[in-house]
Amino acid sequence: MKVMKFGGTSVGSVNSILNLKSIVESAAVNENVIVVVSALGGVTDKLIKTSQLAVNGDESFNEEFQNIVTRHHELIYSVIHCEEKRNELLKEVDKLLNELDNIYQGLALINNITPKSEATIVSYGERISSRIVTALIDGAVRYNSRQFIRTEVKHGKNILASEETDRLIHETFDGKNDRIIVVPGFIAQDKESNEITNLGRGGSDYTAAIIAAALNAEILEIWTDVDGFMTADPKVINNAYTIEHLSYVEATELCNFGAKVVYPPTIYPVFKANIPIAIKNTFNPGGDGTIINANSTSDGRLIKGISSINDTDLLTVQGLGMVGIVGVNHRIFSTLAAADISVFLVAQASSENSTSIGLRHVDAEKACNVLNNEFAKEISMGLMEPVTAASDLSTVAIVGENMRHNAGIIGKLFHTLGRNGINVIACAQGGQETNISFVINNKFLRKTLNVIHDSFFLSEYKVLNLFICGVGTVGGSLIEQIASQRQKLLDEHRLKLNIVGIANSRHAIFDREGLDIANYKSELMNSPESSIEDMRNSIIKMNIFNSVFVDCTANSAVADLYADLLEHNISVVAANKIAASSSYEKYAQLKNIARQRNIKYLFETNVGAGLPIINTINDLINSGDKILKIEAVLSGTLNFIFNMLSEDVSLSHTVRLAQEKGYSEPDPRIDLSGKDVIRKLVILAREAGYTIEQEDIETKLFIPDELFEGTLENFWERLPELDADFESERKKLEAEKMHWRFIARFQDNKGSVSLCKVSQHHPFYNLEGSNNIVLLTTERYKEYPMLIKGYGAGASLTAAGVFADIMRIANI
Ligand code: ADP
Ligand code: ASP
Ligand code: MG
Predict the structure, then answer these.
(1) Is the pTM of this model over 0.85?
(2) Which of the listed residues 233, 257, 266, 457 should we mutate to test ligand 1's pocket, taking the one with most ligand atoms within 8 A of CB?
(3) What is the rounded distance in angstroms from the CA atom of residue 487 to the CA atom of residue 500?
(4) Cβ-Cβ contacts under 8 Å for 746 (sequence gap 6 or more)
(5) Ligand sitting nearest the alpha carbon of 186
(6) How close is the Cα of 446 to the center of ligand 3, in Å?
(7) Disulfide check for 10: which of 6, 401, 503, 575 has CB 3.0–4.6 Å away?
């Protein structure tokens, strides 16, 4: 015999209830089954809400009541097609609904509700649903759970009267051979007064477990709307997945901490009787689901699941007067127990001067009052401080039997949380080591669940959440590259790149589940206007884990956001060089924040687009080398210009070409003035370990100052004035078999940028097109300096370099 429990989600709609019928009927072919049913999904809530409206004299309770009637009628008409059967069922159901209506009318008159009438009202949900299910299933017989599920009052609460219930279950079921028995879950009866009671919200699971244990069922099946017990609540973590197996201990730990899929008291009766529980999906009956039994699995995973309670308050009982005094904890807990307050987390430091207690928000005020009374004398003498509660907190638990005797789990947990800017307010791990619980601020709950899931369940995939700012040539190309690499990264590296935000200077779009990359352009254009400040606020408010801000703009206001973003534990990847080349103080500040927060600020593409220059310098320095000299052609634009100059192509023409091909900055004067090269040289020197500012770089320009002073149009107009002189210089150079190169140098703490002539034997002589070259003289590479050479400009190469920085953050 087996017991099958179907939750509200499995009797809530035509589809689900028809699934239930076929699941039960096929199970009953082989053995007798007892089917425990909940009220139709959401009906218990509605019953409670309607009674509150009625008590408050809000006339809309009539309408709410009618909705309840219609919901049941519609379901009956849709699933019971035999008219005779349907009429018979409707007669029974309408009788119950009439009684319910009368109770509501009574409530509206007396404006008061007692626990007794509340229990009566909520009982109608299961009383009606069980009748519908019985009528629907051929050959089913309905048993009334009030006859055998009994409760008694302890500390003002209804709890199961186990012995009497056990005896009554045997009296009711022994000797019966009904193939399919339907039992309403949740409802019970007080053993003394015979009044209707219940087993608490979600209690149908418990009804089923009690019956399964008493009758020694072969298995207890809990049918719900998800594929089993999952690694976390799938409504919060969308990549949570089904856990194949849990031990009773693990399941208990997870349920007690808010995994709603099983009502916590359910496990104990079946654990005691050693009956396995299977959690199955009514909407996917063929799925494996989860098995819970006495075995522990060692599939190598450190933790099995994560659960949370989001209405936590933390009470702290503290005072130097508590140190070394025996009995304070005894008084705290007996006081709370006497007030019937349940505590789910306790943390006490070894110094003994404070004890923190995690409990539900509804109990917090009462708990403070009783404790302040208990310790009134100590508080008045200044030995202890008044007890206060901190609210808006959540408790998170990670659970798994494999955590036992396994070093490093707490380290990994807190490292992951810290890197994501999540502060742990209190934590507890019992000696059993199967559960680590900790308290955090409510606003970090979703992020916490995500980061833990991400870092402990690597077998699925790791997620990186990207905000891409700037969708010009570089940003646009980056988005395309991500789109084309995404599947491969997921398949081969288990890395999911989620673009959760895209912004340009006037619009921004966000989606924490990931934006639709195919349509981002139109979506962005049609989104409301949004400033850079709005974008910053939205990113920080999203508070999303493992996030990276990618700056593909050349905008200084965007660069100004980095410190703030890094402070919020968002890594920054910048193609924008403004920040790294601004004041040394700013540069050092950004690097420091990133270091302290264990996140990344990367800007490889600031110099040489996709060429690995900064990373090479970092690797040399980190492995103990010292950079003695840097010589480089760092402007693809200038190199392109000087390589293109010929008798037929004048200076002004080549500058125009460079701009049209996208090699130069939108305003080519930034390149011609050497400003861009100065910025790059400053960044390289800083990465090489030197403290230097842009003003320290000596500059020799080849274009007169006044051309830089006017407007851009003015510049284009006047540039041809230089063509003739340049051409005659070029001719001379050609005769001498030399080339012009705009060279950046750094040595002995001094930097310079200038137009130089290089002879045929110089390594910079052959530098085609817009290529860059960097010559690094170091202590190790002294006689033959290290040479890095290649394309140093272009949107798609820069985008690829940005992509490589993102991969560095993902640690691939
Ligand atoms: P039922 O009506 O079948 O009793 P419940 O709503 O009580 O269903 O429980 C199922 C819900 O529990 C799921 O829809 C899911 O959102 C939630 N849930 C929370 N934590 C977990 C978890 N770890 N695994 C599966 N479901 C979970
Ligand atoms: N119908 C009850 C509730 O919603 C019991 C249950 O569904 O388990 O709490
Ligand atoms: Mg439930």
Answers:
(1) no
(2) 233
(3) 17
(4) 629, 630, 631, 681, 684, 685, 688, 690, 692
(5) 2
(6) 22
(7) 6
